[in-house]
Amino acid sequence: MGDTADTGHAVHRGTAFLWHYVRSAPWTFTWLTLLLITTIVQHLLPLDDLQRVLGERSTNLRHLESDPVHVLVASLLWVAGYFWFPYLLLFCIFHAPAERWLGSLRWAIVGLTAHVGATYISQGILALAIHRGYADPGMIDVRDIGVSYFLAGIVGVLTYHVARPWRWPYLGASLLWFAVPLVTDPNFTAIGHFSALLIGLAAYPLTRGRTAPQWNPATERQRHRVRAQ
Q1: pLDDT tens digits for 2-59?
Q2: Which contiguous run of DSSP H or E holds residue 150?
Q3: What are the Cα distances from residue 200, in Å, to 113, 160, 179, 194?
Q4: Distance from the Cα of residue 166 to its chain's centroid
């Protein structure tokens, strides 16, 4: 009976912790749920229908000219691929801490600014390349969907949530992660990701006044040791 009670208490504590964790970042997990639904739809649709659906929600040059608001919103509700689990990890690592730290409104402002800004920067450069003959004119209809520009912006702004001296390795790793594709294969997606990161870094004024403690790996390690004793 004792083992059963202990197991019940452990399950209850685990459930309570999980519910508290989800409630602490409501927009993040609501968005993640919507992405799960659309990912399931991606698996159910025939390939031709899927290509059409994703194409209609793409933030390419044609759609940005004819219906920008629709595609800028709709593109955020689909993943660039068939797998949802990597997004679960990324949302828990970056989005949830950022929303808890900044608050839902500021988190959304940073992410949406990065999403919209990086989209227009990358597609604007693509338009210039097409105009000057450096890119295929058919790329006016290129498929460009997903949440990665929003995510890159959040990765950038989270720099200010990391305590020194850990902030500098985090910043260096972030810049390297997005700069390498830009140097090795400077396509519109790489330009968009790097632009979104810089937009997130430029959002420093929105981080001022946040009272939550900065993330410090040394403090976290000590906390885990105390809990283990």
Answers
A1: 555 556 555 656 676 667 778 889 999 999 999 999 999 999 999 888 889 899 999 9
A2: helix 148-157
A3: 8, 10, 15, 10
A4: 21
Q: How far apart are CA 83 and CA 101, in angstroms?
A: 28
The predicted model gives 203-211 an average pLDDT of 89
Q: Contact at 8 Å (CB) between 156 and 117?
A: no
pLDDT in tens, 138-172: 899 998 898 999 999 999 999 999 998 999 999 99
Mean pLDDT in residue range 97-104: 95
3-state secondary structure of 215: strand
**DSSP-assigned letters across all residues of 101-118:** HH-HHHHHHHHHHHHHHH
SS3 state at 8? helix
What is the spatial distance between Cα 116 and Cα 90, in angstroms, rounded to a whole number? 20
**End-to-end distance of the chain based on CA atoms, in angstroms?**
26
Q: Are 79 and 146 in contact (CB under 8 A)?
A: yes
Please, are residues 150 and 76 in contact by the beta-carbon 8 Å criterion?
A: yes
Q: Which residue has the tokens 């040791």?
A: 225
